[in-house]
Amino acid sequence: RPYGFAIGSNFFPADGAREYSQFSSTPRYDDVKIYALTGQHNFGWSDLTVATSLFDRSITDYQDDTTSFRFFEYLQGLGAFPPFTVPAGGVSVSPENTRLFSTEVRLNTKFDGPINGVVGVYYDDRDNKFSTNVFATDPATGNPQAATQIDERNFKDITKDFAVFGEATWRITSQLSLLGGLRYYDDTRDLTSATQIPFFGLG
After folding, report:
1. What is the radius of gyration, based on Cα positions, of the chain?
2. Which DSSP state fits 104?
3. Distance between CA atoms of 180 and 167, rounded to whole angstroms?
4. How far apart are CA 135 and CA 65, in angstroms?
5. Stated pTM of the model
6. Is the pLDDT of residue 73 over 70?
């Protein structure tokens, strides 16, 4: 605790070096997959390009919460926290998955005349899911005890983007060109969150 830290009317000066003992096992798993594919075709009067990609990442992070649990016990001693049994140790388990798919189709004209252009379509779909889960820790192994889950909160973020675009270039002279373009863009996003198990049943 920092010097001068206070809870209510209680003042607590610093008390020597900070000591910390980790009660829970805290591994981290990170798996990333990336795929990409591009195809092209020459029609003579134009070039067609199709590009698509997929990004998929899964992370599971473990964080020891034992220090927080001891603080809850301390608050109970002050009458500032509900009187229930606080586990000896705890761990937060936070799995997250992000998946992004995108594709673009483009057509570039190659006419002999003074006007040429580009038209295309773009689409992407991003799906992100994240969860935080707090468990009591098995003192023998340091691993979460699934039967003693204390908290569960889930979040989901889904975004879809769609676009149609085009541009044209008019070569007026060898040194002067006029370029114009348009783009239509539509973005939809859905955010949801839910508390499945309130923290220590407190809400």
Report:
1. 28
2. E
3. 6
4. 9
5. 0.75
6. yes
